[in-house]
Each structure stands twice: as C-alpha cells, then as structure tokens.
Amino acid sequence: MDWSGMLTELLDIVAQKSIKSYEDDVCFSSVCKSWRSVAVKVAIKVRYPNGLPSRLPSLLLAERIEDKEFRRLYLLSNESIREIRLPEAYGKFCTSSCGWLITVGDDTTTKLINPLSCEIINLPKIDTFPEFLELSVWNLGIRKLLFHSQLPLVVVLWGCFNKLGFCRIGDDKWTSIETGRVWPILDITCYDGRVYCFDSAFHIRSCDVYGEENKMVIVHVSRLPKEYYNEDLIGAYVIGVDDDDGRKRLLVVIREVMYDDGDIYDYELCCETYKTYNFRVFDFDLENKKWSKVNDLGKKTLFVGYSSSFWIEDASGVIKSNCIYYTDDVELYSDRKNGGGTDMGIFHMCDGTIELHFTGESLSKVSPPVWLQSM
Predict the structure, then answer these.
(1) Is the model's pTM score more than 0.85?
(2) Separation of alpha carbons 62 and 84, rounded Å
(3) Can you give the residue ranges of every domain in the chain?
(4) pLDDT tens digit string along 50-107?
(5) What would the CATH number be for the domain defined by 47-372?
C-alpha cells in the first residue's frame, strides 16, 4: 500500500487518534510529506503553541542569558532537545508541578504557566505572605510547588525557612499554614486528598486540602525512627505511592551530599565542591503506620529536585527502573561561581552507582534545571 496516497479525510482521523505526544508526532511526521502536513494540522487543533507534551518527563534546562525568548527542553524519551517559546520565565525563579511552572520575579510577581499551551494564571505576589520581606529574598521566595488543578489550589513552600502556604486561584494574597514548631519543611506532596510534608526533624505531617476555605490545620502523622536514620539532613523528599494491591504508602527519600573533606570548614569551597553521593529510601505504610527500609523500587522510578517529587513506571524501558533521577537543589548553588546545575544524575538503587541523564552544561544562579512532569 502507498501510505502517501491515503485519503486526507481518513488520514486526519488516524492522526487525531494516534498523535497524543511529541514522540507520536515525530514518528507520524517521518512517514512522508502528506503525513507530516496532517500532523501539523493536528498539533494546531490541540492548541499547544509550543508543541505536544512528551509522554515521559522532560528536563527544563536553565535559561541562556543571551536568549530572552526561548527555553530548551531535554526529552528523556529520545535524548533530544526541543526549543519552546517561554519569554515569561526569563530572569525568574522556576519550579514545577504536574507539567505547570510557577515563576517568581525580582518584583515578587508570581505566575502559573503552562509551558506548552502558554496559558498563564496570575497568582498573588509572593510578598503578600506575612513577614516575607523581613525573612526572604525574591529568588528564595518559593522552593516547592503543588498545583491541584481540580480544586484549583496552589500549595507552596515559601521563605528561607521553608514554611507552608497556599492560595486558591483568584485570591489576592497568600495564606500561611500554621505549622507549630519551626522546623524547615524539606518537601511536600499531594496524595489521597491530603498534603503531606516532611521536615528537617524527620516528621511527616499532613493537612486536608478539602478543608475549610481559608484554613488548613496541619497534624502530626509519624516520625522516621532514629534507628533508621538520625543524621543531619541536607535534602529529603516525600512521595505518595499506590501498590498493585491498593496499599497506600509514603516514600521518604533522603539525599546525602558530600562536601570538601578538608579539616577546616570553608564555605566557599563547599559551594563549589558539593556533590550527591547517595540516597536512602524509607517506606511508611499509611494503614498500619509502620516504617521499613526500601532497597529495591521494583519497576518504579523516582524523580526529585526543585520540582514536585513524583514517580512513574515506564514499560518501554526508556526510563531506567529502580532508579532515582535527580536535579540540583542544594541551596548552596546560589553562591557557586556559575550557579547550580552540575549536581544532577541517575542513582541506581541496585548498586549505588550514579550516571548522568544530561551530559551538556546548563547552569544558573537563580533557576537551575527542573523536571517537567508529563501531563
């Protein structure tokens, strides 16, 4: 059969049913000129000016100072780079959740941006948090983002001490969530209708996102037992995971970072030499309230960094299973000569080895590379 001779009407139907991601579009377009023409029309119909989403997570690379219009996406699915037009993010701090970006500018203006559809949602300025100006600078204003599009609700870690706050779309200011003890929160996740957070004192706490309109009460859930881990925390993440048997659990992922091993502490030297060398993973069963150590993630892959932490299972084998993909999020990067972006890689749970997922250079003092979750 001559595929190039297929009726345009029929080809259009095939394309609309077949093209769901950027990778589908590339494969469909490579058949012949007529198929490529139809693929372009389909891309326009789905209203993604910056192209279709990837079927797997992508790495939003740091901005290039000379380019105020475009940012680069590194696609893990085929190890290629595509450019997307994203002038709204230039010069701003960026973090991500569920395929969306939150940006904070030096004027504290805060926005939610869909980098593919180019939809922009204005959020309250970050300095509407109480005491923000006394405690924080703009590029440390938000460290983590959770975007719950169904509510719609935005939950963030804000300020130098990583406090918890939220707003609903349309609010004119952010609302702080009273967390009690002043332990910096290291990560947050939305799971099974609740926001869970993990702090530097090893506590898991939670609050109900379906609660009162302008109030969220945070409650203690559990503490990682000292016999499992009782050292200083540099970085940690919390991820909700469903098992095949329906068991609901949280994974706590601890990131261990190595600094200069000299006898005298040198801050500037530490800024330039820090490097992740290990991860430890622990499981908290939400039903029986028991902890256990995790040595094998099975078919799952974890993604951590400044973006929302998440997991996937990739049956195609493109994404390496039983691994942790990570980006640079140690706050010392802001004092590095060239910024952050060097401490990234793939940690293999089976043997503790580390390899690169992106071999190029992408550095920034304000906004190093972050994961963009597939939508």
Answers:
(1) yes
(2) 13
(3) 1-46, 47-372
(4) 888 888 999 999 999 999 999 999 999 999 999 999 999 999 999 999 999 999 999 9
(5) 2.120.10.30
